[in-house]
Amino acid sequence: MGIRDALLGGARDPVTPVQAVLEAGIRAQARGCSQSLDLTEEARAAFAADASS
Fold first, then answer.
1. Rounded to the nearest 5 degrees, what angle is found at the Cα of 39, between the Cα atoms of 28 and 8?
2. Other residues' Cβ atoms within 10 Å of the Cβ of residue 41
3. What's the Cα-to-Cα distance from 17 to each of 35, 39, 47, rounded to whole Å?
4. What does the alpha-carbon distance between residue 11 and residue 20 come to, in Å, rounded to a whole number?
């Protein structure tokens, strides 16, 4: 499942976690320190589930 499936309503949005990682990286570089990911609890759970499988 990918972006097409998410747009058609058959899957969750795969871009949100990736976008959050990229944005946190940009903030970390600009501020010179680590940053947390701006994810909803639902997105965090999905991200964790993907990482553990």
1. 125
2. 7
3. 14, 7, 7
4. 18
Structural domain total, the chain: 1
Radius of gyration of the chain (CA): 13
- List Cα–Cα distances, 26 to 11, 19, 21, 32, in angstroms: 27, 11, 9, 10
Range(s) of the domain holding residue 41: 3-52
- pLDDT, tens digit (0-9, with 9 covering 90-100), for 23-46: 999 999 999 999 988 888 887 887
Joined tokens for residue 43: 């997105």
